[in-house]
Design brief:
With 572 residues, the protein is an alpha+beta fold. Among the domains are: 60 residues, no CATH class; 286 residues, no CATH class. It has 13 helices and 20 strands. The strands form 6 sheets. A 6-stranded antiparallel β-sheet has the order 14-1-2-16-17-18. Strand 8 and strand 9 form a beta hairpin. The protein is globular and about 75 Å long.
Length: 572
């Protein structure tokens, strides 16, 4: 490099630091090159019933992917005759088909394993998307991939059950969280777990309890005839007055199977680790599930924000405890008591968190560009992500009959630009717009595309357009959340006369609300397109055009000029 080029480089670096310090208050952080968790952004939150504002348990799931199926279905309850069987399918989280071929939940039966297991006398109704999320008994589920030791992976056909299939079976057969966990765990032991999946975590709840359930395969050499369990699994209960979170990292540490109120596990939970060298009983150290089967080294700081979601959640719900972002994630507690009881709207806000105001703020320095867009800088993993298919919040409430007590709140696409809509446990059908669409074909009959349409237009002038989205969220989300007690009361009055009438009423309410919100988001996308067209401000009422007040701030102009110093051609 010529001397003049070196000189420009050092001048540029000094100017940038000065600009950032003077205009943003901090120097830039190192950009990580190891993006090992780039495709994992599922954040699953769990709230105990005494940690919530209304006495409900809650779980969440951020279904991150960017290419996966987003469609939803309702499966009705059914009675089965003695001797009937249940077919088992390999269901990939990621596999999709073209619209011309058909949708995932029309074609998934192509993955028939050739195995049928004994059916139970009665299966419960449930709602599902990529996984099963809630059944008619208010058993709720959220998911987060956590990974496992490499040699434990079993992608062979001997593993009949993957995580999607397990969630469907758990909801079909479990009327409590404990029952669903036992169903999934015991079936995985008997028929083998893995194939499409490796280490997985499920947040399993009912109106009284919330559990973290983690399951791993046991390697490709396992066979049903081995006489050994085809999976290793463990579950730990979240204390009723605590909250917990799984950000794609195993969360269960030391366990005590002798305390069945707090732990459940497969019979090989420790022995498999000993046999495979993951744990040495002679070490004098207590057995730790996560350290044996899914160690995740690093802290929020040491990974430059790739593993900051765990710290961020704890800091949001219990700031008084002053959790240190330099603490290794594996050293954080399994759960904490929040500083205040959390409402469903508090949880919605947490799912939209972008780590603003922290050292991991994705808009600090020049990361967010002139419109402070938190989605440009992808090296930091935030709770809110831009590649999410949908996000769910399950609410399970023991103060109401199951038909009314259970609610799935669902938002399609990125949480910050979307809107949560309620789906009661007792409804008998899904909105039609929830059942269609894929990433590669724009479909105006698909709910998801309405939210993607608005999100796309928000990105151009983010810090201005997000205010329009927040106004819509207040109108269509916050207002509906405030109406839920009224809807509950109307449904309960009907339920006390005839339960079927309550289900019919709730189905109508959910379908009508979804239709209203989806239309509103198509309209919102149109409005934002017109309002900020050409990165200007078009006032439809006054029929004037002006400058977006937040466009091209002084600090951005200074950074551009500093960059010019580096890019200026050599002068001979």
């Amino acid at each position: 490099m010529h001397k003049t080029r070196w000189l420009r480089f050092f001048v540029f670096a000094a100017v940038l630091v000065a600009v950032f310090v003077l205009t943003r208050g901090q120097a830039p952080e190192t950009v990580p090159t190891d993006l090992d968790f780039a495709g994992r952004s599922c954040t699953s939150i769990l709230v105990g019933k005494n940690a919530s504002a209304d006495g409900s348990t809650m779980t969440t799931h951020t279904a991150d992917c960017g290419t996966c199926d987003w469609t939803w279905r309702h499966v009705p309850a059914a009675d089965h005759k003695s001797g009937e069987t249940r077919k088992i399918y390999h269901i990939s989280q990621y596999k999709t088909w073209t619209p011309a071929e058909g949708l995932k939940w029309d074609l998934y039966k192509k993955g028939f394993t050739g195995t049928e297991i004994p059916e139970v006398a009665h299966t419960y109704a449930y709602h599902h998307g990529m996984f099963g999320y809630m059944n008619e008994k208010q058993v709720g589920i959220g998911e987060s991939t956590i990974g496992t030791q490499r040699k434990m992976i079993n992608a062979t056909p001997s593993a009949l059950l993957d995580i999607s299939m397990l969630t469907l079976l758990g909801l079909e057969r479990g009327q409590t969280a404990r029952e669903a966990i036992k169903v999934m765990g015991e079936l995985a032991e008997k028929y083998g777990y893995g194939f499409h999946d490796d280490g997985e975590m499920l947040a399993v709840s009912d109106p009284n309890e919330a559990w973290i359930f983690e399951i791993m395969p046991v390697g490709p050499l396992w066979t049903p005839g081995s006489g050994k369990p085809g999976a290793v699994w463990c579950a730990q209960r979240v204390p009723d007055d605590h909250v917990s979170v799984c950000p794609n990292e195993s969360r269960i540490g030391e366990i005590d199977p002798g305390k069945p109120d707090d732990f459940m596990a497969s019979p090989n939970v420790v022995s498999y680790a000993v046999d495979n060298g993951y744990y040495d009983p002679k070490s004098g150290k207590p057995f730790s599930w996560k350290r044996a089967y899914s160690p995740a080294e690093g802290s929020a700081v040491s990974t430059d924000g790739r593993r900051q979601r765990l710290w961020r959640f704890l800091d949001l719900v219990a700031p008084s405890q002053k959790f240190n972002p330099e603490t290794p994630d594996m050293d954080f507690p399994f759960s904490v008591k929040p500083d205040k009881k959390l409402s469903v709207q508090d949880i919605m806000a947490i799912t939209r968190d972008k780590s603003r105001g922290t050292r991991f703020d994705t808009t600090s320095g020049i990361r967010g560009g002139p419109f402070q867009n938190p989605n440009y800088y992808r090296a930091t993993r935030t709770i809110c992500v831009s590649n999410v298919e949908y996000t769910t919040i399950t609410q399970c409430r023991d103060s109401l009959p199951d038909t009314i007590g259970g609610i799935i709140w669902i938002s399609f696409g990125p949480q910050d630009t979307s809107c949560y809509m309620p789906l009661y446990a007792g409804i008998s059908e899904m909105p039609k717009s929830f059942a269609v669409g894929d990433h590669w074909t724009l479909d105006r009959d698909s709910a998801r595309w309405a939210f993607d349409y608005t999100d796309f237009h928000v990105q151009a002038a983010y810090n201005a357009a997000i205010e329009d989205v927040e106004e819509a969220q207040a109108k269509y989300e916050a207002a509906v959340a405030a109406r839920i007690p009224e809807i509950d009361k109307q449904a309960l009055d009907l339920y006390n006369k005839k339960p079927a009438k309550a289900a019919q009423f709730l189905t109508g309410f959910c379908l009508n609300n979804a239709q209203t919100v989806v239309k509103a988001w198509w309209d919102l996308g149109d409005e934002i397109l017109v309002k900020y067209n050409h990165l200007a401000f078009y006032d439809s009422q006054k029929r004037t055009i002006g400058r977006i007040k937040t466009a091209s701030p002084a600090w951005w102009n200074k950074a551009v000029k500093a960059m010019d110093i580096l890019l200026e051609p050599d002068k001979k």
